[in-house]
C-alpha cells in the first residue's frame, strides 16, 4: 500500500499550473509557403501513435496523480438535443465538485475543479449562474455547431451573443468546405473574423478532422487556424462518426510545436469526442508530455472535451483509494 506521503506528493504534482503569464497567440499573416510545406508520413504517424499507450504506463499513486491532472484539464461537456437547464445545473455542480469529498481527502486534496463547462449557447447563462463565485469558465459551441453551415453573419452574431451571455471561451467549427476545396485564404479569413468577434474570450477552433479527408489537410488546417489567431485547436465536435484519435492528435500537436518554434506563441490543444475511458486520458496526457513537454500539461494549454470521461476517472480514483470499484450510482454524472 502506498504511503500517504507518497500519495500527497504525487497528487500535489497534479495541481494545475497557473499560466497567467501566457501571452495569447495574436496570429500572423497567412503564409501559404509554410502551409504548402506541410508534409505527413502517414505510416510513421500511425506507428508512433500505436506505441504511445505502451510507452508510458503509470501505476498506483502516479496514475491517481495523472487522473487528477486530467480532471483539471477537462471541459466537462453536455451537447445533447435534450439538454435542459436542470441537467446543465447538475453538470455545473459536478464541475465544482468532480470527485466525492472522501476520495479527494484520501488523496490529500481539499478541492479540485474542472477546466471549463462546455454547453450550447442556449445554456450559457444557466451555466454562468450556476458557476458564479468559482473560476470555472463557461465555453459555448458556436458558428452553427456541429456542421458549421450557418450564414457567416449569423455565425458572428452567435459568437457575440455567447460572449455577451458570459462565455469566456468559444468553440467554433470551421467550414470544412474551405479545406476540402483548398481555399485556405477563406479559412484564414473566417477564423480571423471569429477571433475578432470573440474579443477577450478565448477561441478554440474545431477542425472536425474526420471530415477533412487527409492527415495533410489536418496539418494544414491546424496551421492556418493558428495563423488566424486560434488560442486552441480542437479535433472534433463529438458528432462525427470518428472523433479524437491519437494519429490525428499527433499531427495537430506537431503543428502546434512547429508554430511555437517559428513564432514563439503557444497554442493549446483539445482532443474531443469519444474519450470516455480513464485509460485513454492517460494516453492523451502521455502524447502531450512526449510531444510538447510539461509546459503544455495544464488547463491553460490542454483540455479534454468529454461528456462521459469523468465518471470513469472517478471510478478509478475510488478504486485506488478503497481497493474496490464503486457501483455506477455512486458516481452519477448529472
Ligand atoms: O466537445 C466535446 C465533445 O462534443 C464531447 O464529445 P463526447 O460526448 O463524445 O465526449
Question: What does it look like?
Answer:
- With 334 residues, the protein is of the alpha/beta class.
- The chain has one domain (38-323): Aldolase class I (TIM Barrel, Alpha-Beta Barrel), CATH 3.20.20.
- Helix content is 47%, strand content 10%.
- The chain has 14 helices and eight strands.
- The chain has helices at 4-12, 32-36, 42-55, 60-72, 85-96, 101-106, 124-130, 152-164, 176-180, 184-198, 215-227, 246-263, 278-291, 309-322; strands at residues 74-77, 116-120, 138-142, 169-173, 202-206, 232-234, 268-270, 304-306.
- An eight-stranded parallel beta sheet has the order 7-6-5-4-3-2-1-8.
- Strand 3, helix 8 and strand 4 (169-173) form a beta-alpha-beta unit.
- Helix 3 (42-55) crosses helix 12 and helix 3 (42-55) packs across helix 13.
- The protein is globular, with a radius of gyration of 19 Å.
- The model is unreliable at 1-9 (pLDDT under 50).
- Glyceraldehyde-3-phosphate (G3H) binds at residues 77, 79, 118, 237-238, 272-275, 305-308.
- Belongs to the DeoC/FbaB aldolase family. DeoC type 2 subfamily.
- Pathway: Carbohydrate degradation; 2-deoxy-D-ribose 1-phosphate degradation; D-glyceraldehyde 3-phosphate and acetaldehyde from 2-deoxy-alpha-D-ribose 1-phosphate: step 2/2.
- It is an enzyme of class 4 (lyase).
- Residues 1-24 are annotated as: Disordered.
- InterPro entries: Aldolase_TIM (IPR013785), DeoC (IPR011343), DeoC/FbaB/LacD_aldolase (IPR002915).
* Helix and strand element order: HHHHEHHEHEHEHHEHEHEHEH
Instruction: Could you tell me the CATH topology label.
Output: TIM Barrel
Number of strands: 8
Percent range for β-strand residues: 5-15%
**Quaternary structure type:** single chain
Number of helices: 14
Work out the count of structural domains.
Answer: 1
CATH class: Alpha Beta
The secondary-structure class comes to: alpha/beta
**Rg (CA only):** 19 Å
CATH superfamily, called what? Aldolase class I
Give the helix level as a range of percent: 40-55%
Main beta sheet: 8 strands, parallel
**Strands in their spatial order, largest beta sheet:** 7-6-5-4-3-2-1-8
Distance between termini? Answer: 33 Å
Uncertain runs are: 1-9
The CATH architecture term is Alpha-Beta Barrel
The backbone outline, from C-alpha atoms, is globular
Mean pLDDT, nearest integer? 92
